[in-house]
Design a protein that fits this description.
The complex is a heterodimer of chains A (158) and B (230). Chain A is mostly helical. Helices cover 65% and strands 3% of the residues of chain A. The two termini of chain A are 19 Å apart. Chain B has 2 domains: 34 residues; 181 residues, Glutaredoxin. Classes of the chains: A mainly alpha (158), B alpha+beta (230). Chains A and B meet through α2, α3 and β2 of A and α1 and α7 of B.
Chain lengths: 158, 230
């Protein structure tokens, strides 16, 4: 098991980092759409949703790059996992309130036809990604990371 | 804990990489926020009113008639459907001065939407916006497929009886690029989350709930009723 951990960690880094990088990249150049996607959740005041719609894709790109090259793994993984938990909450509340929206995870987003919603798939996918982040938080030493000895600061008592 | 902190070249590379990533993220995010702000010095096409969310306004001076606000994106197929169902009636309302109509041309579907919105503003300067608008939707190309270019839009303008060379210049030079951004920013402030979104006297008309319920958007008779009231 000890030997497998760094390899599983590599996989977790590439999956979570890859998804964040692609999802962010698909949105950074279409800010109008991304702002619309955040507004459609109807959680935040409009001005805040608009700012988040612009800034979040860039943060995703940043965390994705760090995870893929393997630097500041714990911080990036914690950010990624926290983000996924927020997404799960946001999607679940939209589902519970009966909104018809696209999660806007990979571009797109906004109000859609009720028959086109995919809340369950979106939530399951984000749970999987959150688990990747949590794994890296626990086992940050992974194969082919630029940073060979990630800081242990985030896990007290280790 | 300090024994676990990496030292030497590994640490330098780490900090360098972190610094670069933070810089890219910060510059990108700040640049995006600034370029999405309203630009108060933008050139405005004729018949645009800042007070009406930078929309292209018809019958703005007529009082006591219903106000129809149409938020659309030129590349949105559902907007083409709305135009197909209700476009003729809306044009008639404009001609007979029975409604104030405001067209808000959003561009969230991509660069070709922005090109089209700019050209539509140019057509408004020639008093041919309605014709251009109709011609565009009747020939709606696939989304961001590279079809919508300055040449395409100029040819479409001829189709809508726009012959002035000024129109071509305006399309090519993106004269109303900043205005297009302002319309988008205004849509964001008004919480427009899909297209088309249509308001009558400030209230959104009813959206259909299923394939068979067309709502007030795609049922011509229901739309007429919504405009003319009880």
């Amino acid at each position: 098991m000890k030997k497998a951990e760094p390899w599983i960690g590599l996989l977790a880094r590439l999956v979570l980092g890859g998804v964040l990088l692609v999802a962010g990249y698909l949105k950074v150049f279409t800010p109008d759409k991304s702002m619309m996607a955040v507004r459609a959740y109807e959680i935040l005041p409009i001005w805040l949703a608009n700012i988040l719609g612009i800034v979040l894709p860039w943060l995703e790109v940043g965390a994705g790059i760090l995870l893929i090259i393997g630097v500041a793994i714990r911080y990036a993984a914690m950010f990624g996992a926290a983000l996924m938990v927020l997404f799960i909450i946001a999607i679940a509340q939209a589902w519970a309130r009966g909104l018809s929206i696209d999660c806007g995870c990979f571009g797109g987003g906004g109000t859609i036809d009720p028959s086109q919603t995919k809340y369950l798939e979106e939530i399951l996918r984000d749970i999987g990604l959150a688990l990747c982040g949590l794994y890296l938080l626990r086992y940050p030493i992974t194969k082919f990371a630029l940073e060979k000895k990630p800081s242990q600061e985030l896990v007290p008592g280790e | 804990m300090s024994s676990k902190t990496p030292k030497g070249p590994d640490n330098t590379t780490r900090n360098l990489v972190i610094g670069m990533v933070v810089l890219v993220v910060a510059v990108g995010a700040i640049f995006s926020v600034l370029s999405n702000k309203e630009n108060t010095s933008a050139a405005l096409p004729s018949s645009v009113s800042k007070d009406d969310g930078y929309g292209i306004v018809y019958n703005g001076d007529i009082k006591g008639v219903p106000v129809i606000d149409i938020w659309e994106d030129f590349q949105c197929p559902v907007c083409a459907r709305f135009e197909q169902v209700n476009g003729g009636y809306i044009e008639k309302l404009i001609e007979e001065k029975k409604a104030k109509v405001v067209y808000h041309t959003l561009s969230f579907l991509g660069p070709e939407s922005a090109l089209a919105a700019n050209a539509a503003a140019c057509s408004s300067d020639e008093n041919k916006f309605l014709g251009f608008h109709k011609a565009f939707y009747q020939n709606l190309p696939a989304e961001n497929a590279g079809v919508v270019t300055a040449e395409y839009l100029i040819a479409l303008g001829e189709f809508a009886d726009i012959k002035s060379p000024k129109f071509g210049e305006c399309v090519k030079n993106l004269n109303y690029k900043d205005w297009v951004n302002n319309v988008a920013a205004s849509g964001g402030e008004k919480n427009i989350n899909s297209t088309p979104t249509v308001f009558i006297n400030g209230k959104e008309i009813r959206r259909g709930t299923s394939g068979t319920d067309l709502g007030e958007y795609f049922d011509a008779a229901a739309f007429v009723k919504a405009v003319e009231g009880k």
